UniProtKB/TrEMBL annotation:
Name the record gives this protein: Small ribosomal subunit biogenesis GTPase RsgA
Compartments in which it is found: Cytoplasm
Gene3D superfamilies: P-loop containing nucleotide triphosphate hydrolases, Probable gtpase engc, domain 3
Binding-site residues for Zn(2+), renumbered to this chain: 305, 309, 311, 316
Residues the entry annotates as binding GTP: 156-159, 223-231
Composition bias type Basic and acidic residues, residue spans: 336-357
Assembly and binders: Monomer. Associates with 30S ribosomal subunit, binds 16S rRNA.
Coiled coil: none
Co-factor(s): Zn(2+)
Function, as annotated: One of several proteins that assist in the late maturation steps of the functional core of the 30S ribosomal subunit. Helps release RbfA from mature subunits. May play a role in the assembly of ribosomal proteins into the subunit. Circularly permuted GTPase that catalyzes slow GTP hydrolysis, GTPase activity is stimulated by the 30S ribosomal subunit.
UniProt lineage: Bacteria, Bacillati, Actinomycetota, Actinomycetes, Micrococcales
Species whose genome carries this gene: Dermacoccus abyssi
Limits of the CP-type G domain: 97-281
Enzyme class: hydrolase
Length: 357
């Protein structure tokens, strides 16, 4: 009905409507609202970036308990000056292009959206200290595929161990990766860096390639404690430590002021979303079909599968398909990788929950 002009006649065919002013529910809501991006959440207050201003906002009552998470585009009304002490109101959450959920656990029985509108899931994994575990990465991959995010494996501490052996686990999966390693510092350099930044310094090799992968995109960083995630974030975003209160000045150890995600703008454009305390994803709802779609070489082989095939059962047609060469030379390895991912849905990494702080 776009462009239609209402006439007196239209009004008259609706008997009983005395007031010519449309009822509130018929009026377009909040025409004057402006849209910003949620960059942080803390105790019922949202931090929203709008035209370079950081605005503190509350959720309008009409939204009730609608989740509003980091990465969400939200419509704001009220005082959007961003001046100290002001509070805007979030009146609408714009449609999301992606959602990343964390799993239900002992402290919270619901799967919850943790980040919206991200493009990429960066799995920060140390090659040693702590030892890398494929289980968690597999679960992250499934979460990424399910949420429609591109996965990126960010391997750290390559100064301690050569990445080749670990990467062999992912060769058949074709997961893109970057490798960083800390440079040795002389005592003088260390002194100087501690004096200038107030935290344990790490100069990283390999950072440029990671920067390129992150440029202009919205990337969620996940990883176990100690893998070097804050080291990466601090290297990528110069004033991250100040923004997040992430790193303890004295010890250099992580000390998180909150367990919710926070979005940090990259100097060259794009965002990294740090997720302290989030190490597990809700995968119970993930349909095997969604995962198989990420294996375009295997997907055609599923046409002969029984209805509702889990693709990890004796009747699955993929075995024959692969045996007959349908997926090429790497078919068998690819099928094994696919099944490893499918199984990772049911087996939470044993440390995932314990490590939540
Ligand atoms: N050898 C080596 N050590 C590194 C590297 N990157 C980080 N580290 C060290 O690993 C330790 C953990 O790094 P963090 O950046 O605090 O790790 P995190 O993942 O943020 O851990 P939490 O703060 O506990 O969540 C620190 O002592 C870092 O200096 C690296 O490339 N090589
Ligand atoms: Zn099957």
């Amino acid at each position: 009905m776009a462009g239609r002009n209402w006439s007196e006649a239209d009004v008259r065919v609706r008997p009983g409507r005395r007031n010519s002013r449309p009822r509130t529910k018929d009026r377009p809501k909040h025409e004057d609202a402006v849209v910003g991006m949620v960059i942080g959440v803390d105790r019922g207050r949202w931090s929203v970036l709008l035209d370079g201003r950081r605005i503190t906002a509350m959720r309008a009552r009409e939204l009730s308990r609608t989740p509003v998470v980091v990465g969400d585009r939200v419509a704001l009304v009220g005082d959007t000056s961003g001046d100290a002490g002001t509070l805007a109101r979030i009146v609408r959450v714009e449609e999301r292009t992606s959602v990343l959920r964390r799993t239900a656990d002992d402290t919270d029985p619901y799967e919850r959206v943790i980040v919206a509108n991200a493009d990429q899931l960066v799995m920060v994994t140390a090659l040693a200290n702590p030892e890398p575990r494929t289980g968690l990465i597999d679960r992250c991959l499934v979460a990424a595929y399910d949420a429609g995010l591109d996965p990126l494996l960010a391997l750290t501490k390559a100064d301690l161990v050569d990445p080749a052996a670990f990467l062999a686990n992912y060769a058949a999966l074709d997961v893109p990766y970057t490798v960083t390693s800390a440079q040795e510092l002389s005592d003088d350099q260390r002194e100087e860096l501690i004096a200038s930044s107030g935290r344990m310094p790490r100069r990283l090799d390999g950072l440029d390639e990671l920067r390129e992968r992150l440029a202009g995109r919205v990337s969620v960083l996940v990883g176990h404690s100690g893998v070097g995630k804050s080291t990466l974030v601090n290297a990528l975003v110069p004033d991250a430590a100040r923004t997040t209160g992430h790193v303890n000045d004295v010890t250099g150890r992580g000390r998180h002021t909150s367990t919710s995600a926070v979005a940090l703008e990259l100097p060259g454009g794009g965002w990294v979303i740090d997720t302290p305390g989030i190490r597990s994803f809700g995968l119970a709802h993930v349909d095997p079909t969604t995962i198989v779609e990420h294996f375009p070489d295997l997907a055609p082989g599923t046409v002969n599968c029984p209805r509702g095939c889990t693709h990890d059962e004796p009747d699955c047609a993929l075995d024959t398909f692969v045996a007959e060469g349908g997926a090429g030379e790497s078919g068998q390895q690819r099928l094994e990788s696919l099944r490893r991912l499918l199984r990772s849905r049911d087996v939470p990494d044993k440390d995932e929950h314990m490590e939540r702080r």
